[in-house]
Design goal:
Length: 262
Protein backbone atom coordinates (compact mmCIF):
# COMPACT_ATOMS: atom_id res chain seq x y z
CA UNK A 1 0.00 0.00 0.00
CA UNK A 2 1.45 3.37 -1.05
CA UNK A 3 1.65 6.03 1.63
CA UNK A 4 1.70 9.66 0.55
CA UNK A 5 2.84 12.23 3.08
CA UNK A 6 1.22 15.63 3.13
CA UNK A 7 3.26 18.32 1.41
CA UNK A 8 3.86 20.33 4.58
CA UNK A 9 5.38 17.25 6.30
CA UNK A 10 7.70 16.64 3.34
CA UNK A 11 8.90 20.26 3.53
CA UNK A 12 9.34 19.97 7.29
CA UNK A 13 11.42 16.82 6.87
CA UNK A 14 13.65 18.49 4.28
CA UNK A 15 14.12 21.51 6.55
CA UNK A 16 15.17 19.24 9.42
CA UNK A 17 17.71 17.51 7.20
CA UNK A 18 19.13 20.86 6.03
CA UNK A 19 19.39 22.09 9.62
CA UNK A 20 21.25 18.93 10.62
CA UNK A 21 23.62 19.32 7.66
CA UNK A 22 24.29 22.92 8.64
CA UNK A 23 24.98 21.91 12.24
CA UNK A 24 27.35 19.12 11.18
CA UNK A 25 29.14 21.46 8.78
CA UNK A 26 29.51 24.13 11.49
CA UNK A 27 30.91 21.60 13.96
CA UNK A 28 33.38 20.31 11.36
CA UNK A 29 34.48 23.85 10.43
CA UNK A 30 35.03 24.83 14.07
CA UNK A 31 36.98 21.63 14.74
CA UNK A 32 39.17 22.13 11.64
CA UNK A 33 39.76 25.79 12.55
CA UNK A 34 40.74 24.82 16.08
CA UNK A 35 43.19 22.24 14.74
CA UNK A 36 44.76 24.77 12.38
CA UNK A 37 44.93 27.39 15.13
CA UNK A 38 46.54 24.87 17.48
CA UNK A 39 49.09 23.87 14.82
CA UNK A 40 49.88 27.52 14.06
CA UNK A 41 50.39 28.24 17.75
CA UNK A 42 52.70 25.22 17.97
CA UNK A 43 54.62 26.33 14.88
CA UNK A 44 55.07 29.90 16.17
CA UNK A 45 56.24 29.01 19.66
CA UNK A 46 59.10 31.22 20.86
CA UNK A 47 62.16 29.07 21.75
CA UNK A 48 63.24 29.75 25.31
CA UNK A 49 66.52 30.81 26.87
CA UNK A 50 68.67 27.70 27.34
CA UNK A 51 67.10 25.81 24.42
CA UNK A 52 69.02 24.84 21.32
CA UNK A 53 68.56 27.30 18.47
CA UNK A 54 66.16 25.93 15.82
CA UNK A 55 68.01 24.84 12.69
CA UNK A 56 67.17 26.02 9.18
CA UNK A 57 68.55 26.14 5.65
CA UNK A 58 67.73 29.20 3.55
CA UNK A 59 68.75 31.43 0.67
CA UNK A 60 70.31 34.72 1.67
CA UNK A 61 71.88 37.78 0.07
CA UNK A 62 75.22 35.99 0.49
CA UNK A 63 74.20 32.54 -0.76
CA UNK A 64 72.85 29.46 0.93
CA UNK A 65 73.00 29.36 4.74
CA UNK A 66 72.80 26.41 7.11
CA UNK A 67 72.03 27.93 10.49
CA UNK A 68 73.52 27.66 13.03
CA UNK A 69 75.98 24.99 11.84
CA UNK A 70 77.74 27.28 9.34
CA UNK A 71 78.97 29.32 12.31
CA UNK A 72 80.62 26.54 14.29
CA UNK A 73 81.96 27.69 17.68
CA UNK A 74 80.91 31.28 17.03
CA UNK A 75 78.51 33.52 18.88
CA UNK A 76 75.54 34.36 16.67
CA UNK A 77 72.91 37.10 16.68
CA UNK A 78 69.75 36.58 14.64
CA UNK A 79 67.84 39.79 13.85
CA UNK A 80 64.35 39.81 12.35
CA UNK A 81 62.87 42.91 10.74
CA UNK A 82 59.36 43.76 9.45
CA UNK A 83 60.23 44.81 5.92
CA UNK A 84 62.75 46.02 3.36
CA UNK A 85 62.80 49.67 2.25
CA UNK A 86 61.23 50.83 5.52
CA UNK A 87 62.69 53.73 7.55
CA UNK A 88 63.24 52.14 10.97
CA UNK A 89 64.63 48.87 9.57
CA UNK A 90 66.98 50.83 7.30
CA UNK A 91 68.33 52.85 10.23
CA UNK A 92 68.92 49.63 12.21
CA UNK A 93 70.78 47.93 9.37
CA UNK A 94 73.00 50.95 8.80
CA UNK A 95 73.82 51.01 12.52
CA UNK A 96 74.57 47.26 12.39
CA UNK A 97 76.84 47.82 9.41
CA UNK A 98 78.74 50.46 11.42
CA UNK A 99 79.25 47.93 14.25
CA UNK A 100 80.20 44.94 12.07
CA UNK A 101 83.89 45.09 12.93
CA UNK A 102 83.11 45.29 16.67
CA UNK A 103 80.99 42.13 16.48
CA UNK A 104 83.68 40.43 14.40
CA UNK A 105 86.22 41.08 17.19
CA UNK A 106 83.75 39.54 19.65
CA UNK A 107 83.73 36.27 17.64
CA UNK A 108 80.13 36.97 16.66
CA UNK A 109 78.32 36.54 13.36
CA UNK A 110 75.24 38.57 12.43
CA UNK A 111 72.28 37.17 10.47
CA UNK A 112 69.18 39.15 9.50
CA UNK A 113 65.82 37.80 8.36
CA UNK A 114 62.46 39.01 7.09
CA UNK A 115 59.54 37.61 5.12
CA UNK A 116 60.46 39.61 2.00
CA UNK A 117 61.81 37.85 -1.09
CA UNK A 118 65.48 37.55 -2.01
CA UNK A 119 65.31 40.03 -4.90
CA UNK A 120 63.85 42.64 -2.56
CA UNK A 121 66.69 42.01 -0.08
CA UNK A 122 69.33 42.40 -2.79
CA UNK A 123 67.89 45.67 -4.07
CA UNK A 124 67.54 47.00 -0.54
CA UNK A 125 71.17 46.16 0.31
CA UNK A 126 72.29 47.92 -2.87
CA UNK A 127 70.34 51.01 -1.83
CA UNK A 128 71.60 50.94 1.78
CA UNK A 129 75.21 50.64 0.66
CA UNK A 130 74.86 53.89 -1.27
CA UNK A 131 73.28 55.78 1.65
CA UNK A 132 75.21 58.33 3.71
CA UNK A 133 73.78 57.90 7.22
CA UNK A 134 74.93 60.15 10.09
CA UNK A 135 77.73 61.51 7.91
CA UNK A 136 79.62 58.20 7.96
CA UNK A 137 79.59 57.77 4.21
CA UNK A 138 78.55 54.59 2.39
CA UNK A 139 79.09 51.31 4.27
CA UNK A 140 79.30 47.71 3.07
CA UNK A 141 76.77 45.29 4.55
CA UNK A 142 78.77 42.12 5.21
CA UNK A 143 76.13 40.02 6.96
CA UNK A 144 73.52 37.87 5.19
CA UNK A 145 69.82 38.66 5.02
CA UNK A 146 67.63 35.56 4.94
CA UNK A 147 64.59 35.36 2.69
CA UNK A 148 61.71 33.75 4.59
CA UNK A 149 58.72 34.36 2.34
CA UNK A 150 57.22 31.01 3.42
CA UNK A 151 57.31 32.18 7.09
CA UNK A 152 58.72 28.78 8.13
CA UNK A 153 61.79 30.16 9.92
CA UNK A 154 59.87 33.06 11.45
CA UNK A 155 57.42 30.60 12.98
CA UNK A 156 60.25 28.43 14.33
CA UNK A 157 61.58 31.47 16.21
CA UNK A 158 58.19 32.91 17.19
CA UNK A 159 58.79 36.09 15.20
CA UNK A 160 55.24 36.27 13.82
CA UNK A 161 53.09 37.93 16.48
CA UNK A 162 49.55 37.66 15.14
CA UNK A 163 48.19 40.65 17.06
CA UNK A 164 50.77 42.82 15.27
CA UNK A 165 50.82 41.07 11.87
CA UNK A 166 50.23 37.62 10.43
CA UNK A 167 52.72 38.07 7.58
CA UNK A 168 55.49 40.34 8.93
CA UNK A 169 58.14 39.68 11.56
CA UNK A 170 58.34 41.85 14.64
CA UNK A 171 61.78 43.15 15.58
CA UNK A 172 63.26 40.08 17.23
CA UNK A 173 66.80 39.46 18.50
CA UNK A 174 68.24 36.09 19.51
CA UNK A 175 71.76 35.90 20.96
CA UNK A 176 73.10 32.36 20.57
CA UNK A 177 76.30 31.00 22.13
CA UNK A 178 79.01 28.84 20.46
CA UNK A 179 77.23 25.66 21.62
CA UNK A 180 74.11 26.87 19.74
CA UNK A 181 72.05 27.56 22.85
CA UNK A 182 69.85 30.64 23.07
CA UNK A 183 71.19 33.02 25.71
CA UNK A 184 69.10 36.18 25.33
CA UNK A 185 65.91 37.24 23.54
CA UNK A 186 64.57 40.70 22.71
CA UNK A 187 61.34 41.73 20.99
CA UNK A 188 60.44 45.22 19.81
CA UNK A 189 57.31 46.55 18.05
CA UNK A 190 57.27 47.80 14.47
CA UNK A 191 57.47 51.49 15.42
CA UNK A 192 60.43 51.36 17.83
CA UNK A 193 64.00 50.89 16.64
CA UNK A 194 66.44 48.70 18.55
CA UNK A 195 69.34 50.00 20.64
CA UNK A 196 72.28 48.26 18.98
CA UNK A 197 74.70 49.36 21.70
CA UNK A 198 72.53 47.63 24.30
CA UNK A 199 72.52 44.43 22.25
CA UNK A 200 76.31 44.65 21.99
CA UNK A 201 76.56 45.31 25.75
CA UNK A 202 74.39 42.26 26.47
CA UNK A 203 76.60 40.12 24.23
CA UNK A 204 79.74 41.24 26.09
CA UNK A 205 78.04 40.62 29.45
CA UNK A 206 77.10 37.09 28.34
CA UNK A 207 80.65 36.41 27.17
CA UNK A 208 82.04 37.83 30.43
CA UNK A 209 79.89 35.58 32.60
CA UNK A 210 80.04 32.53 30.32
CA UNK A 211 83.16 30.84 31.67
CA UNK A 212 83.23 32.08 35.26
CA UNK A 213 80.96 32.30 38.27
CA UNK A 214 80.31 36.01 38.06
CA UNK A 215 77.25 38.17 37.42
CA UNK A 216 76.74 41.63 35.96
CA UNK A 217 74.68 44.19 37.90
CA UNK A 218 72.13 46.62 36.50
CA UNK A 219 73.55 49.10 33.98
CA UNK A 220 76.86 47.24 33.93
CA UNK A 221 79.29 48.34 31.25
CA UNK A 222 82.41 46.48 30.05
CA UNK A 223 85.36 47.17 32.33
CA UNK A 224 83.24 47.84 35.42
CA UNK A 225 83.16 45.74 38.60
CA UNK A 226 81.13 42.54 38.48
CA UNK A 227 79.10 40.67 41.07
CA UNK A 228 79.51 37.17 42.50
CA UNK A 229 76.78 34.79 43.71
CA UNK A 230 75.36 35.67 47.11
CA UNK A 231 76.51 33.85 50.25
CA UNK A 232 73.88 31.38 51.41
CA UNK A 233 73.63 32.92 54.86
CA UNK A 234 74.90 35.77 57.01
CA UNK A 235 77.36 33.32 58.59
CA UNK A 236 78.85 32.59 55.16
CA UNK A 237 79.04 36.33 54.52
CA UNK A 238 80.96 36.80 57.78
CA UNK A 239 83.46 34.14 56.68
CA UNK A 240 84.00 36.05 53.43
CA UNK A 241 84.60 39.25 55.39
CA UNK A 242 87.22 37.49 57.54
CA UNK A 243 89.06 36.25 54.45
CA UNK A 244 89.70 39.91 53.60
CA UNK A 245 90.11 39.26 49.87
CA UNK A 246 91.32 42.62 48.45
CA UNK A 247 89.46 41.94 45.17
CA UNK A 248 86.07 41.57 46.88
CA UNK A 249 83.77 44.04 48.64
CA UNK A 250 80.11 44.12 49.65
CA UNK A 251 77.35 46.69 50.12
CA UNK A 252 75.23 44.29 52.17
CA UNK A 253 75.68 40.65 53.15
CA UNK A 254 73.95 39.31 50.00
CA UNK A 255 75.48 41.75 47.47
CA UNK A 256 79.15 41.09 46.78
CA UNK A 257 81.32 42.61 44.05
CA UNK A 258 84.60 41.61 42.43
CA UNK A 259 86.86 44.46 41.35
CA UNK A 260 87.54 44.74 37.69
CA UNK A 261 91.06 43.94 36.53
CA UNK A 262 91.87 47.12 34.63
Amino acid sequence: MKIVLPLHLIKLNKNNIMKKVQIYFTIFFLFASAQLWSQEKKDTRIPLIGEMAPEFTAETTMGKLNFPSDYYMKWKILFSHPGDFTPVCSSEFLELAALQEDFEKLNTRLVAISTDGLNSHLEWVKSLESTNYKGRGPVKIKFPIVSDNTLDISRKYGMIHSYASTTRDVRGVFIIDPSDRICAIFFYPFNVGRNLDEIKRTLIALQTTDDSKILTPADWMPGQDVMIPSPKSTDDAEKMVKKADPDLYSVTWYMWFRKSKK
